[in-house]
Amino acid sequence: MATAEQTTAAAAAATPAAPLPRVPMVPIPPRGVDYRGKLVLAPMVRSGELPSRLLALHYGADLVWGPETVDHSLIGAARRVNPRTGMVEYTRQPSHSHSPANSAGVHESVIYRLDPARERGKLVFQLGTADPARAVAAARFVAPDVAGIDVNAGCPKPFSVLGGMGAALLQTPEKLAGILEALVKEIVPEFGIGISVKIRLLETAPETEALVRRLVRTGITGLTVHCRTTPMRPRERAIRGQLGMVAAVCREAGVACLMNGDVEGRDQADRLVAEFGVDGAMIATAAEKNPSCFRSAADGGMASWEDAVERYLRYAMEVENKISNTKFLLAQMIPGKAATYKEVHKCKSYVDFTRALGHEGMAEMARETDKVLGLGEFEVKPEPKPKNKQKNQQQQQQKGGQQQQKGGQQASKKRKHEGEERAEPGKKMAEAVEPTPAAAPASVAV
Ligand SMILES: Cc1cc2nc3c(=O)[nH]c(=O)nc-3n(C[C@H](O)[C@H](O)[C@H](O)COP(=O)(O)O)c2cc1C
To answer: In this structure, are 10 and 47 located in the same domain?
Structure first.
């Protein structure tokens, strides 16, 4: 038999549009943000790096979530302000450079980059964590730079789940509540920002309701529900049957509730918010393709992909975005059928991008960016490792006599040839790389 709570929840789910009573809200800390009435950019590993967030804000996103970053990777990281761009960067040494023999000449890698001006009061930092103490330590490091800390309790990937993070936390609600309570206790008074959580649906409404009822008692200010269960693939349509219930439980506790899953734009979001009684909505994949989905029809509606791409490229250069990430995002934004799609795929520098996209007006900015990142004409190729064939020749040389002389000549001929290739940058284009080599991944794919 259903409990009184289940009955209330079922009624709320059945009549989600019914006017809901006003209740006291969990207070929003002085530097925090209220998620009510907001349409926000979802946390997205890879697709939610700084230029994407700036573009979403430009087109009217009210708040932006950064990509999930695992607590481990922040502990021991350093914070710096990039003197050229003014961006805040969290960096760390790549893991393979820890031995003194390896550390010489190895640059630290940027694991997170944010804009202290344009993202001020709008950036929510999402943590991947399975441990209250580590979550607090990591949150303390980033809290002065952000407007909120969100805990990922929905990532279904093995990396997260096997580490007890992401969707694994949905199965251990007391552990998840413990993490949120620790963050509320330590971070809210010290930094004046709010704590929130992003969950997925559980299999049945009573299970989801029990989870949400526990989470809203932790002191969080917001809860986002991704309307898919953990086993559901992104292609499967989001299910909204439990949404009215989740919204009602959050409202009763004074916690803002954002809906997520197949929200495609501002006008549709307004309708869904009214229909399900939630406080706001979050967009991921639609924004990955064209972040102008945050703009209402009344304000101009969707921009063309060409406009979005041009602006994206400018932001990417302004913040010195890693070229592989820029290329990935361009591939999401440019339709596969467009002639430029294949051209962009071949690009290895920012100058290449401006040529492929016909933005010659940005060529000088692109050249400056290439110079800083060591791309295109500024690329420094690593010393080639001796090939096996060469090694064998060297071994043959050690056998002495005439054979030694002959082998030596061949090797020196080959080295000369390789030297000539290196002396002509641009003749043979190698894979584009940033001078800061990638460390063990700081953020994980979700
Ligand atoms: C490329 C990509 C990366 C994502 N990374 C994260 C992440 O870091 N943290 C998270 O909670 N969800 C992540 N998600 C899930 C989204 O935030 C969102 O919940 C999901 O895509 C459903 O929203 P949509 O239907 O608007 O795409 C990611 C999704 C995509 C497509």
So the answer is: yes
- Residue at token pair 């290449």: 352
Q: What is the atom index within ligand 1 of the atom nearest the CA of 226? A: 19
Residues 280 and 340 in one domain: no
- How large is the angle between the packed helices 350-357 and 305-318, nearest 10 degrees? 160
Mutate to test the pocket of ligand 1, among 44, 71, 129, 176 (most ligand atoms within 8 A of CB): 44
User: Ligand 1, atom 19: nearest CA belongs to which residue?
Assistant: 226
Length of the chain counted residue by residue: 446
- Cβ proximity of 280 and 223 under 8 Å: no
Closest ligand 1 atom, residue 284 Cα: 26
Write out pLDDT tens, residues 48-105.
Answer: 999 999 999 999 999 999 999 999 999 889 999 999 999 999 999 876 555 444 444 4
Is residue 427 one of the residues assigned to a domain?
no
Q: How many CB atoms lie within 10 A of CB 177?
A: 20
Based on its alpha-carbon atoms, the radius of gyration of the chain, rounded to whole angstroms, reads 26
Q: Read out DSSP for 221-237?
A: SEEEEEEEETT--TTSP
Q: Whose CA is nearest to atom 13 of ligand 1?
A: 44
Strands 109-114 vs 194-201: parallel, antiparallel or unpaired: unpaired
- My answer on whether 414 and 361 are in the same domain is no
User: Is the Cβ–Cβ distance between 91 and 320 less than 8 Å?
Assistant: no
How far apart are alpha carbons 153 and 176 in whole angstroms?
Answer: 8
Distance separating alpha carbons of residues 264 and 292, to the nearest angstrom: 10
**Residue 407 in this model has a pLDDT that exceeds 60:** no
pLDDT value of residue 3? 35
138 dihedral zone (left: phi>0; alpha: psi -120 to 50; beta): alpha
Domain that holds residue 333: 306-365
Which residues have CB under 6 Å of ligand 1? 42-47, 67-68, 126, 152, 154-155, 198, 226, 234, 238, 260-263, 283-286, 446
- Of ligand 1's listed atoms, the one at least distance from the Cα of 152 is 11
Report how many domains make up the chain: 3
pTM of structure? 0.83
In a domain, residue 327? The reply is yes
Q: Which of 63, 150, 285 to mutate to test the pocket of ligand 1 (most atoms within 8 A of CB)?
A: 285
Contact 213, 250 (CB under 8 A): no
Q: How many A from CA of 436 to the centre of ligand 1?
A: 27
* Residue 377, in any domain of the structure: no
Task: Clarify whether residues 276 and 398 are in a common domain.
Answer: no
- Residues with catalytic function: 155
Residue 390, Cβ density class (10 Å: 0-12 exposed, 13-18 middle, ≥19 buried): middle
